[in-house]
């Protein structure tokens, strides 16, 4: 099927919005997936095509965080590998199963994150001087990172919300650096999952590339905004965007 010019323009604008919110908190895919399905794009194609924009916004955002000196590098490999393996498992399941079966899990997960950010702010916004914890020193974090990758590989929507409590809560990174690591991990499992969706013929490149252009622009704006905001402000943005994402998931 072919979209018209206005639909492509709307997707470009949504790509910008998704890039901005994904660099600060998450939930960008919750803006895009319902609209794609409203346009008549099958759920599996929407899920696969959306990954093109996520991939390129992650490259753009990661570059911005790295240039600003906000990307921690000392434990990157240990953080990345569990999410890659989880992403591969999740993408394989998603390529053979309807995305609709995940809706209850999506809602429960995001509501849990909203409650976590509201009732346990100290887990996300730490006092000055708190040092990060290495994955090797917290074995449970490996399982949590694998589950994050599994979820992200299955459906991108809400993956950032799930990842931040692990990176900021369990591994004790401040929210800006946790966001940078989140983008790094997202790039990793998106590469894996996109390869699966391409192999399965579940990517429409016209949609994916339009989303990608908007997402790259949005990511550049989002990184600059995230770096300049206070941690407490970022926490509230995460809380509000989580609730918005829940409403979008209910709507779709």
TrEMBL record:
Protein keywords: Cell membrane, Membrane, Transmembrane, Transmembrane helix, Transport
Record-linked Pfam families: TauE
Subcellular localization(s) per the UniProt record: Cell membrane
Transmembrane segments: 6-24, 79-99, 106-123, 143-168, 180-198, 204-222, 234-251
Main location class: membrane
Superkingdom of the source species: Bacteria
Record-linked InterPro entries: TM_pro_TauE-like (IPR002781), TSUP (IPR052017)
Membrane topology classification: Multi-pass membrane protein
Family statement drawn from the similarity comment of this UniProt entry: Belongs to the 4-toluene sulfonate uptake permease (TSUP) (TC 2.A.102) family.
PANTHER family in UniProt: MEMBRANE TRANSPORTER PROTEIN YFCA-RELATED (PTHR30269:SF0), TRANSMEMBRANE PROTEIN YFCA (PTHR30269)
Protein name, per record: Probable membrane transporter protein
Lineage of the organism: Bacteria, Pseudomonadati, Pseudomonadota, Betaproteobacteria, Neisseriales
């Amino acid at each position: 099927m072919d979209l018209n010019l206005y639909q492509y323009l709307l997707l470009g604008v949504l790509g910008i919005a998704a890039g901005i919110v994904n660099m600060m908190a998450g939930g960008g895919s919750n803006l895009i997936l319902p609209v794609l399905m409203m346009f008549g794009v099958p759920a599996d194609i929407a899920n696969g095509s959306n990954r093109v924009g996520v991939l390129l916004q992650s490259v753009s955002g990661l570059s911005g965080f790295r240039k600003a000196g906000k990307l921690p590098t000392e434990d990157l490999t240990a953080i990345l590998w569990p999410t890659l393996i989880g992403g591969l498992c999740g993408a394989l399941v998603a390529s053979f199963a309807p995305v609709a079966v995940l809706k209850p899990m999506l809602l429960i997960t995001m509501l849990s994150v909203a409650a976590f950010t509201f009732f346990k702010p100290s887990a996300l916004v730490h006092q000055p001087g708190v040092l990060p914890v290495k994955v090797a020193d917290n074995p449970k974090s490996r399982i949590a990172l694998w589950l994050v990758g599994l979820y992200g590989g299955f459906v991108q929507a809400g993956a950032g919300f799930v990842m931040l409590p692990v990176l900021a809560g369990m591994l004790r990174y401040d929210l800006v650096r946790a966001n940078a690591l989140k983008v790094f991990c997202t790039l990793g499992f998106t590469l894996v999952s996109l390869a699966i969706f391409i192999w399965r013929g579940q990517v429409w490149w016209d949609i994916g590339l339009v989303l990608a252009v908007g997402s790259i622009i949005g990511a550049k704006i989002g990184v600059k905004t995230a770096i300049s905001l206070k941690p407490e402000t970022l926490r509230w943005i995460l809380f509000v965007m989580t609730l918005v994402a829940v409403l979008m998931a209910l709507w779709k």
